[in-house]
Amino acid sequence: MSQSPHISIIMPCYNAEKCIETSIDSVYRQTFKDFELIVVNDGSTDDSLAILKKLADRYSGLRVIDQPNKGPGPARNHGIKDAKGRFIAFLDSDDSWHPDCLSKLHRALQNNKDASIAYCGWQNIGLEPNRCKPFIPPDYEKPDKIETLLRGCRWPIHGALTRKSAIDAARGFDEQWTSCMDYDLWLRIASFNKIVLVPEVLAYYHHHDGEQITKNRLRIALNHWRIQLKYLESHPEIAESFGKDKLKEITNGELLHKAYVSYWKGDLATSHHLFRKLFLMGHFKTKDIKYLLPSILPFSLYRKLITQLRHEPHAE
Fold this sequence. Notes:
One of its GO terms (molecular function) is hexosyltransferase activity. By secondary structure, the protein is an alpha/beta fold.
C-alpha cells in the first residue's frame, strides 16, 4: 500500500468483540487494495481493543485510535480528521461489504469527476427472509432530487464512497444526532452536489437477534423529522419553493406515515408518541382521527384500548 492511500475507511468500534474481526476481514478481501483502515475504539469495555491490537499486527494499513466513549458521530469525525485518503468510506464494526464494493464505487467516481458521492444497493442479513431481499435505491439525479432526498437517503452509511473534500466542506457529522447522522450528512452533501448510483448490492447490513428493529424506531423517526426541519430552516429558499402544503406533507406527513407503520407493526409505544405529537400539532385528516384521538390517553390505557379493539370481531 502507498504511503498516501487513495481511500480511507473509517470504522467506529464499541463493544464489538464478537463481530469486529469479520467486518475487518471483509475490508481486506476488497479487490481494491489502495486503502487505509482507521478503527476508532470508542471506549469499549469488552476485549475489542485487545483484538484490534492483534489485528493491527496482522494487517498492513490498519490504524487503531483509542478514545473515551463519545458515540459513533464523534468517533467517525475523529477518523475523518486523521484520514489521509482522497475518498472516504464508512463501515460499522458489525457490517460487511461485497469484495468489489470499493472498486465499483471508486470507478463510478472516477468516471464522474463532478460527482461527490457514489452509492450502491444493500441487503439485510439476519432478519426473516421477506426482510432480507436485495434493495437498490433510486437514482436521485432527477428534477425532484431535493424532495426525494428530504424524504430519505435510502442507502446505509457503508453503502457509499464520498470525496473527502465534500465531507470536509460539510464539516463532517453533526454530533448532536444520536441516530440518522448519516442521513443528515448525505442530505447536506447530496443536495448541492452530483451523486451517482451503482445499481448493485455491494453492502450488507447485519442484524443480531433483531435487537435494532424496534428499539430505536421512535428516536429514528423523530430525528429524521428534526433533521428535515433544521435543513429547511437553514435553506429557506428551498422551503419556500415547495409551498406550505407540500412542505407539511414532506415533513409531518412522513412522520404520520411512520406512526402508522409502527401501529400496524404492533410497536404501540412509538405509535402512541407519534400520534399524540401529530394530534397536538394539528396534522391530521378526518380519516386519521380514530387513530390519533386515543393517543391522548396515558400509554397504559392506550395500549389496553388498542389491544381490545384488535381482538374484537370485525375490528379494523
